[in-house]
Amino acid sequence: KAGVTQTPRYLIKTRGQQVTLSCSPISGHRSVSWYQQTPGQGLQFLFEYFSETQRNKGNFPGRFSGRQFSNSRSEMNVSTLELGDSALYLCASSLVRYNEQFFGPGTRLTVL
Amino acid sequence: DAKTTQPTSMDCAEGRAANLPCNHSTISGNEYVYWYRQIHSQGPQYIIHGLKNNETNEMASLIITEDRKSSTLILPHATLRDTAVYYCIVRPLGSGGSNYKLTFGKGTLLTVNP
Prior knowledge:
The complex is a heterodimer. By secondary structure, chain A is mainly β. Helix content of chain A is about 0%, strand content about 55%. Chain A is globular, with a radius of gyration of 13 Å. Chain B is mainly β. In chain B, the strands form two sheets. Chain B has a five-stranded mixed sheet with strand order 1-9-8-3-4, with no helix packed on it. Chain B is globular.
């Protein structure tokens, strides 16, 4: 069974731009969570989606948004990029909510 | 969620067993012990989880003490590719609290040496 896939793997943007990251969960998994990971802050929770509905949201500004489609694929969007948004963005899927989460390889975003 | 304590770093010789300890003295009865690892700049990888019985899968074994206050992750024959940061976390299965998200501590940097 294929794992979680994320595209693109690497991205370089400039301040003020916006970006969309994509995540395809493991086949059959219905819950998708997004995390931001930086050396200073570690792993921080962004959102959780299940059945196309955002179930939980972390402590991030409104510039960070996401959605989930009927096939469980998910996207997250960051608008008006700031230098501090440079990070590894991770998507994790689980069969149902609260089960073990399986991570994708991440998207490395660099904001210049 | 219960806090965990892990050594900052450990070394292991290639081909030998790597035993990674984790203390979780405040674990509750409904909390599971999970292990993940993260190889540099890659996404975390789920390894194994357990409640109170010892567990084994194709990657590792998990030994949980009878009082559940500590556990050990065992990689039976460590290879260079097992060099990674290993995270021990405890979380309940099922809804409640902030169980919808994973929270990693500092973890243990395991270095497998040739």
